[in-house]
Specification:
Structural class: alpha/beta
Strand order of the largest sheet: 16-15-12-11-7-10-9-8-17
Radius of gyration: 21 Å
Shape: globular
Distance between the termini: 37 Å
Length: about 375
């Protein structure tokens, strides 16, 4: 199995999580780390036995013993660092969302195509057991014609920094570009887009909210200027539709999980329940003129598929998939295209909220501007 030599750019909370994950993936070899805080980069390198540490990512990119870089920076740094890495001849794995705007994400996708290198975006929900089960049912024709889907994400009061975790960088447009939709909504919207076949967007409408109380000193210190609740409705080609609700904070007990409805059946993805526990994955259809609500043994499904399918481990996680794809064991899932379309929808909700009306995909693309931080 070929070793893939990796450089990590950014060793904050997310960067450390990625490093931990690579340690359990055969074939992943960490060569260097980089962070503007050189002392922290050096400490992390020593802790994990990584040979080299830098404070300037350009120095890391000059190394000819690195095959790919992993970009673990805040959203508005994704595009400039990713594009520089691609132009330096490195494959790139980038944290979600793809960037701060559609324009920046498109520039990243175009740079990957021009360089001939692979671009992969971290979308962990694509590798969950329930996603695999739903995809199998859809591909097997069990849902029939898909016509409507729902993307939901719920937190009662769990906003970055103001509710006690993370940093203010998550709550400011200048670094994060967006709030709940960009932070968590990307996972749920991308998951649904993947299951729907990443359909072309025609029109988007939506509304953003920041209404839940927060501690005054935390509000001031955070510079909180992003949404804590985002809602939207998307019209795709061929009449397919999607409604969206994503909450960092909302006075509700919980939401039902994301779902997809088809002419022959439907699926509902798991969700956390108020008071603890998780609603299971369910499949709904009609059998002999009787309505049936079914649960599946996802754990046994996973065990069996790992026993009998070649390279099933390549779909255990986003990072495992990335390494397997670079090793040539499996084709890379189109995560960059899915992430870019997710950004189109999210930015469409922003534009719709700003204009107070439904907007077309063409309007969103035309109005999108770079928010990338100059480097």
């Amino acid at each position: 199995m070929t070793n893939i030599r990796i450089g990590i750019i950014g060793v904050g909370q997310i960067g450390k999580q990625h490093i931990e994950k690579y340690s359990s993936i055969p074939g992943a070899e960490l060569v260097a780390v980089c962070d503007v805080n050189l002392a922290e980069a050096s400490r992390v390198a020593e802790q994990y036995g990584i040979p080299h540490a830098y404070s300037d990512f350009r120095e890391l990119l000059q190394r000819d013993d690195i095959d790919a870089v992993d970009v673990c920076l805040h959203n508005n740094f994704h595009a400039p660092v990713t594009i520089a890495a691609l132009e330096a001849g490195k494959h790139v794995y980038c944290e979600k969302p793809i960037a701060g705007t559609y324009a920046d994400g498109k520039a990243m996708v175009d740079a990957a195509e021009a360089s001939g290198k692979q671009l992969h975006i971290q979308l962990f929900t694509l590798y969950q057991k329930e996603t695999k089960a739903a995809k199998t049912l859809i591909d097997g024709g069990m849902l029939g014609k898909l016509y409507h889907a729902r993307s939901t994400g719920f937190r009662r009061r769990n906003r970055p920094y103001v509710d006690g975790y993370g940093t203010p960088y998550f709550t400011r447009k200048e670094t994060a570009a967006g709030g709940a939709l960009f932070d968590m909504g990307v996972y749920h919207i991308a998951q649904i887009l993947y299951l729907l076949g990443n359909p072309a967007v025609e029109r988007v409408t939506g509304k953003l909210y920041q209404e839940t109380d927060m501690l005054p000193e935390r509000r001031e210190k955070s510079g909180f200027d992003v949404e804590e609740l985002g809602t939207g409705f998307v019209r795709f080609a061929d009449g397919l539709t999607l409604d969206i609700i994503e909450a960092w904070a909302v006075h509700m007990g919980d939401f039902e999980g994301s779902s997809i409805a088809g002419s022959k059946g439907g699926v509902r993805l798991p969700s956390e329940q108020a008071g603890g526990g998780t609603r299971p994955f369910t499949f709904h259809n009609t059998v002999c003129d009787m309505d049936m609500d079914s649960t599946l043994d996802l754990d046994m499904m996973d065990v069996r598929w790992h026993r009998i399918r070649d390279n099933e481990d390549a779909y255990d996680s986003s990072q495992a998939h990335w390494i397997a794809a670079l090793q040539g064991r499996v084709p890379l899932l189109p995560t960059a295209d899915i992430a870019l379309r997710t950004m189109l929808i999210s930015e469409g909700i922003y534009l719709s909220d700003q204009l107070g009306r439904e907007v077309t995909a063409e309007e969103v693309i035309a109005s999108s501007r770079s928010t990338a931080v100059p480097l």
